Predict the structure.
Amino acid sequence: MKKIYLLIIVSLILTSCFRKEHRIEKIELSGLSESLNNSIELCLEESIGYESYHLKFNTTLKNGTEINTKTTLMSPTDSEKKCFKIYLGASFTHRHTPKEESELIKQIFKNNVSEMTITIFDEWGKEKIRTQTFKNL
């Protein structure tokens, strides 16, 4: 029984030692006007491997409007991938997104965002890995 407990403790220690503490190295918005074709280019300090991560965005526009969105980062074919292009329409909207919400999301473009807070969660969306805030994008 002691061996089982020891094995569990050692495996938990090893798992926590190798867990990536993802940090966003670079973020850049595209587009100079309202469009769902605008994108957010996001680069991490280290690759995500074959895992996936949930991202929650809390965006404050220059006019004070807050927009909450979320998406998933995954890289099933390239384990060394660090940079991701997140298209607003494809990542933040779906068939049943209300028109008012789509109109707000369109307003995420270069020089129109005063603050963007991004929280990275594990692949199940339960454990918070990191939160970072970027200003004047």
The first strand starts at residue 24 and ends at 29. The beta strands are 24-29, 39-44, 52-61, 66-74, 83-87, 113-121, 128-135.
